[in-house]
């Protein structure tokens, strides 16, 4: 059992931490973006790894819970704790430096609180790129992005957050520092604790710094939006593109017409430059080496797709602003979704070849539950769909409260039945603890609980996240 | 404390396992390639995951050690146990099927005993490639390759074994089966047990099957051998190549003239087609998308390298047989090394920008210990050098026995001093347990021991490998 963090407990730290570490928790620490949870806790904002270690030693000793807080952008409640003994909220916001950049190694080292956009800028200044890219990049912090193994738009080509990380500095539950901040591309000395910490959502340790891979900037990039006859045709088009340019396909996003229709309905600007608006579209981005023209490659892919009966219409960006306009359609859909208000949102993945069947079965099954609209979009190349269910025009999510649980269960059961995941990129947090218990492999869950007990015997790290406390 | 595997213990399994599972251990199970260890044990060769589980349940209950055995090609004694209570040797050789191939998903599923070359063939037949490639691919088995997170020739572009794996089926120490054989590219539901098992060298679980990523075959490949002025020039040439073709550089191998000289000295065939023989060379391979000529790209890279003063000579393969001849030089060097007989071999990595300093400091320091020859070659693009120390011509490794420990310590201390690894790709096995204790981070070692105790409380899995029993 954990003890609550009290002001008396916080005061015991005053001779061990500088004044700057003591702050008032604000709404940004106690709420999460979707407004489903309101947390509680007393805030500490350490300025160094040693200060994090000091706090964790004290919390471990006093058996006080610690909720790590990065940018607060997570979508599954991993960053707020609303039940149980009041925890310390451990903000990494003051540890936001890029410590070092090693351009000749394609490596940079950032503190856990460094904001993703700043890491991207540092890589750009070094003539490289940091490929992790997602909607919240202006506020999400790398410690949280790694703790949740964030995905985003470039996973197809560059992998998720995990794939960008070479080494970690981590403070353990006992307040020891693991100096694992290696810049090595290969190191087979012992268990892969790096990948264990990545995706553990702060329940096994606190990521205070990371050595990150930068990637070479492709010599040229190109973007296109192609109508496709069906989700199956979209997959065939992906295979066709890869036959031609290998894995230089950097993004392959599926868009159903519901997304652009939501944009229009909610008064949001970006428009699809195809008339008539297709039922299904894919947004394709190529990043090519020197000597190839992205426009030529995209044209060749389009012509082959037309010949194969996969596509009948499309637009290839001929400037950066045209490319940005195409991307704006994709990137504004989540905001349109928020304005409409979903009955239930899902972040599922299924094996690539099952995507069309999942979509074909999901629609009729959901519509049997009620008069709903489905906005299915996302990272098709990764088999990862944001499959969100909405009320019809003129009605609100509140009208559908009674079927919400059923909708979620139907979608999750369907994905699970295809061998899929009920959290492809958002993680478990507190929202999906029950889903993990329901769908998770029993041997996996046993091992997870054994590891949690071994590394955090008092259960102080992010209590109730991922695993029930 | 573990109990020895006795014939009585084995006999208790006869009613639970088919006759085919009972075999005599042969030399291939009791020796390792370098002849440094001779193991002991009673052999079991299960034919299915359920049989593996049966064996592990019995061993867990009886506290009998289990040494997993794949292809037996490991170089650090992870596959043989020569001390302690006689273990069961668990051979995966009968579980060698490719279970399924999913070309449209770029995924195949193989049993733990599947031989790497057969996996490569299955991928080729599906019009894809399986990029893991190393000298022992004709006998190494995927379970062992994953358990040791094997590296090899294509890590620069495709990553090591870890990066090829989507999902695992694993039998735990308690004989439970974790059905984690997912074909998903994205799945953020809980701790990353896959990567924990990968590289754990059979000490945390037995890998009975794996879902593996296949990669698109590059539309065209090209190979060249360039003289370079120095290791620093080699790194600059790599940067230059990447500026032009991004990460379509699929291999970048450093070769010191000592390697080709050893080939000549030991009567091995391949010759370097450059005259005079340069002090330093790099073997470069590009895998390019449609529309680019590898020869043109390599020529452009060479011309730029000459202009930058990095290279003065080189040869670009104009046929597959010429490319194979260049690769033969690199691939035959290990055999020449074996024929010469090393005083001490090392599989180190350092941060990329420290490679030249490591090489500059290592030579004089070693020659201060004695009259030695150094063959430094390997995966420069990964910062991974096979840095092997040999006697001068006419003398043998036995003459240098007295300095062997000092040589190893010097090389390992030097690599560690640069923030490097003393086992970049071979793992810890039993050979480097002391190195891990000497160089490993204390917090990392504590966590490793806690995880080992949590997942394998009786310590039956590969006793004495990675961590002291």
UniProtKB/TrEMBL annotation, chains A, B:
It holds the Pfam family FAD-oxidase_C. Gene3D superfamilies: 3.30.465.10, 3.30.70.2190, 3.30.70.2740, Uridine Diphospho-n-acetylenolpyruvylglucosamine Reductase, domain 2, Vanillyl-alcohol Oxidase, Chain A, domain 4. It comes from the Bacteria. GO terms for biological process: respiratory electron transport chain. GO terms for molecular function: catalytic activity; FAD binding. Residues 30-217 form the FAD-binding PCMH-type domain. Its cofactor is FAD. Keywords: FAD, Flavoprotein. Belongs to the FAD-binding oxidoreductase/transferase type 4 family. This is FAD/FMN-containing dehydrogenase. It comes from Limimaricola pyoseonensis.
């Amino acid at each position: 059992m954990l003890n609550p963090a009290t002001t008396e407990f916080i005061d015991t730290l005053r001779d061990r931490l500088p004044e700057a570490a003591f702050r008032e928790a604000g709404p940004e620490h106690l709420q999460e973006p979707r407004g489903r949870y309101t947390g509680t806790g007393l805030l500490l904002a350490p300025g160094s790894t040693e200060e994090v270690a000091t706090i964790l030693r004290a919390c471990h000793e006093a058996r006080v819970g610690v909720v790590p807080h990065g940018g607060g952008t997570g979508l599954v409640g991993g960053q707020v704790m609303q039940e149980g003994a009041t925890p310390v909220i451990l903000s990494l916001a003051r540890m936001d430096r890029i410590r070092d950049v090693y351009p000749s190694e394609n490596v940079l080292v950032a503190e856990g609180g460094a904001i993703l956009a700043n890491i991207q800028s540092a890589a750009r200044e070094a003539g490289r790129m940091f490929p992790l890219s997602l909607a919240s990049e202006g506020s999400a912090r790398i410690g949280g992005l790694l703790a949740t193994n964030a995905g985003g738009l470039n996973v197809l080509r560059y992998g998720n957050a995990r794939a960008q990380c070479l080494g970690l500095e981590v403070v353990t539950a006992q307040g020891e520092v693991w100096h694992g901040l290696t810049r090595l591309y290969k190191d087979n000395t012992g268990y892969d604790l790096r990948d264990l910490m990545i995706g553990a959502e702060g329940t096994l340790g606190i990521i205070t710094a990371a050595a990150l891979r930068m990637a070479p900037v492709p010599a040229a990039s190109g973007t296109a939006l192609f109508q496709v006859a069906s989700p199956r045709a979209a997959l065939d088009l992906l295979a066709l593109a890869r036959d031609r340019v290998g894995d230089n396909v950097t993004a392959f996003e599926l868009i159903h017409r519901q997304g652009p229709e939501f944009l229009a309905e909610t008064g949001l600007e970006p428009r699809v430059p195809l008339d008539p608006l297709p039922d299904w579209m894919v947004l394709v981005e190529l990043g090519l080496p020197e000597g190839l023209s992205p426009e030529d490659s995209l044209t060749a892919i389009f012509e082959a797709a037309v010949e194969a009966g996969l596509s009948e219409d499309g637009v290839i960006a001929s400037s950066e602003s045209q490319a940005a306009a195409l991307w704006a359609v994709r990137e504004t859909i989540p905001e349109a979704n928020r304005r409409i208000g979903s009955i239930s949102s899902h972040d599922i993945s299924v094996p690539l070849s099952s995507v069309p069947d999942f979509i074909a079965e999901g629609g009729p099954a959901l519509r049997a539950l009620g008069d709903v609209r489905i906005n299915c979009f996302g990272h098709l190349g990764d088999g990862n769909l944001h499959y969100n269910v909405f009320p019809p025009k003129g009605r609100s999510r509140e009208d559908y409260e009674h079927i919400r649980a059923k909708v979620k269960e139907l979608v999750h059961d369907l994905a699970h039945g295809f061998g899929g995941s009920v959290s492809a990129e958002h993680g478990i947090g507190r929202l999906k603890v029950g889903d993990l218990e329901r769908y998770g492999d029993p041997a996996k869950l046993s091992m997870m609980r054994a590891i949690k007990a071994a590394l955090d015997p008092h259960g102080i790290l992010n209590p109730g996240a991922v695993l029930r406390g």
